Amino acid sequence: MLADDHPIVMTGFAMSLEAAGMQVVGQAKTPSEAVALYASQQPDVVILDMRFGTELTGLDAAQSILKDDPGAKIIFLSQFDQDSLIKETYRMGAHAFVTKDCDPSDLVTAVRHAHDGKLYFLPQIASRLASMAVRGDVTPQSQLDERGLEIFKLMAEGMTNAEIAEKLDLSTKTISNVSQSIKEKLGVHRQANITLLAVKHGLIEP
Hints:
Elements: E1 2-3, H1 7-19, E2 27-28, H2 31-41, E3 46-49, H3 58-68, E4 74-78, H4 83-92, E5 96-99, H5 104-115, E6 120-121, H6 123-135, H7 140-143, H8 146-156, H9 161-168, H10 172-186, H11 191-200
Parallel strand pairs: 1-2, 1-3, 3-4, 4-5, 5-6
Helix pairs in contact: 2-3, 8-10, 8-11, 9-10
Protein name: Response regulator transcription factor
Keywords: DNA-binding, Phosphoprotein
InterPro entries: CheY-like_superfamily, NreC/VraR/RcsB-like_REC, Sig_transdc_resp-reg_C-effctor, Sig_transdc_resp-reg_receiver, Tscrpt_reg_LuxR_C, WalR-like
């Protein structure tokens, strides 16, 4: 089963999979459709786009699918390859993460591995996961609490301390103290670097 909000992408992948002798039992264009279609079709493997043009994401769809079927075999498909997203997909129980520019043969191999209950790593994805394991999980998500992460995302979007304080109904002094603490914890001080870090870890859109 395929779920992607770009019909051309889905059609191309469906043709590649069918040419390899696989049957595409359904195609969904939204996360909600994906959850409903999975429930009705019970496919051996589901390929989920990471991001849709809606508030819900492929991760949201996967969580719903896995809640009802913990044994679901999921492959994530994305043009985004931030480290935190890659790690989160495997933490959830996904069998593979492939990029939209991958060779069709890689997608076919990923599906076969997932069908057999095995993990599949593209070489570049495996390298990044290994690097994360060596250096530790030094991400904003691991270093900041929920409020700190919320403030960090607003900082990354370019909001001033005063604007963040007004949005969160807190004092400017409080936000100033928290933002300084965030910069020190993450080792970033320039606005451009704060924004780049948030994009890298999938906290804001590029």
